[in-house]
Amino acid sequence: MKKPLLFCYFFLVILGARGQSCNCDITLSGLSTTTLNLVWASQISYSPGDTICIPAGNYAGIRFYDFEGTASNPVVFKNCGGQVTLNETAYSALEFKNSKYIHLTGTGHTSTTYGIKITGTGSWSMGVVLSALSTDIEVDHIEVASAGFAGFMAKTDPDCNNSATWRSNGFVMKNLNIHHNYFHDTGGEGIYMGFTIGYKLDGGRNCGGTSVYGHWLENVDVHHNIVENTGWDAIQVNLAHLNAKVRDNVIKNYGTEGRWGQAFALSLGGGAYEVYNNYMENGPLEKGWGMQIINGESGTKVFNNVFVKPKMHGVFLHHRHEFIDPNEGYYIANNTIIEPERAGVHYNTTVLHPIDPADLHRNQSEVPSYFVNNLVVDPGYDFEGGNTWKQNQESYFDFNERETRDSLLTNIYTNIMTRQIDTLGLTDVANNDYSPSSLSSAVVDVGSDLTSWGMTFDMNDASRPSATTFDIGAFEYQSSGTSLLARLPDTDDLYDVSLTEEIKTVFYPNPTYSTFRLENANYDEVTLQLVSMDGRIVFSDSYQIGEPFNVEEFTAGLYFLRLVTADKVETHRLIIR
């Protein structure tokens, strides 16, 4: 039975019966194309675990209030019947307020990877927002193609008029899973999570003489997103003090406004982080900085990342408070840093905001941090032969104090520091492929074994070590001594079109980050098999020619794609990024 609902902006939203093709429990209709749509949970009869669908079409922004599922049965919001396009002119385009246990997904139709697309927001507004004490939310397969400010924002700023927003009153924004989205062409950040200031004692908000701090974030996973063409930082996460990961993201052409201190590929602060498998490539104007971690806590790990021509340092680290654990600092390992404007890594341990006033300006040089297996190529700093305490190594791994450098010298090892990238034997430097090209590459089998640190894979999720020990940089050369084709099962039945006859099957794009399509006029349906490099068939099922095939669940790397028909088997090579 359909229920008409009249909202304060004087447009109708009708909630209908289950959609047959999308498994919807509730379908929104009557959404305005010109005025912000407001949807309150109190006006909808729903239960935890229900799916609320937005039918394909073009609308103004949508704001959801007070929806709540459970940890095991979140309320699902998705597109149905095709792509939903939101073009908002005054406000943020898609927002959840005071909501928890929510799953927002653009996987409602196979015709598009990003089933919900945002093409406009108000000035200084966001594409997608989680606010007003919202928590426990998953967001995936959303495209923000234009935003006045941030593409995605998740935080509730401390409000002097609402003490529930103060950290001291216990609210924690937790269990955020932000993945497989495409955020681009934003005026500000691509992804912005957490209150920017006020970690422990530095610059909280003053409310009538009371210092008020922003809430903590816990269990944050930001992964497999594509972030491009951002005016400010590509990804910023703050106050994630427990179990925060920023991984497997592709970042290009960021910080295009060139704002001082707000042009990082990654800007992280106030917590303990694992940062790995991110690819960060500066834009043609080279205004984007590398990454910074301010007040990263003991145990923070940065590994398997690629930085291409960052402005300033590749990695900038500054702990302005005392370390929680004076026996553990940071682990900076197996990163590839290409032509940073200054140093590959800069490390500053001077206390500026002490818990104990006696610690002001104390150098925490006794805290052990490690810099291992990194590849740093041709930094802009050039201390070689100078008359200061900084010499050749400080061009690559720089420190604000000599005492810190001296105390950590034994923790800086098996890195490759070079001005000559052409001597390394990398695959395709001209096209930013910095993986080793062969076993004879200078980066292969010369690193230190870091399995005890949990670093058992490379940027492509291939196992480390592949041979005798770790390679240097983000990529591990994979070699078994046999050709890739020889590792495939049932090789007698293979039909390799690259070796025999004219190729009639076309598939694109290749490489792919999300989906590809196959075209062949001779077939309507085939059996499609995806075979990993070790010969395992990781997927086998029927495939309709011309339909998009989603690869996001598979590990990045090289695969063989097999098309099985009644009369032959074709084999193609597919790269999943």
UniProtKB/TrEMBL annotation:
Gene3D superfamilies: Single-stranded right-handed beta-helix, Pectin lyase-like
Superkingdom classification of source: Bacteria
Family matches, as InterPro entries: Choice_anch_Q_dom, PbH1, Pectin_lyas_fold, Pectin_lyase_fold/virulence, Secre_tail
The name this protein goes by in its record: T9SS type A sorting domain-containing protein
Domain Secretion system C-terminal sorting stretches: 508-576
Signal peptide: 1-19
Entry keyword set: Signal
Pfam families hit by this protein: Por_Secre_tail
Transmembrane segments: none
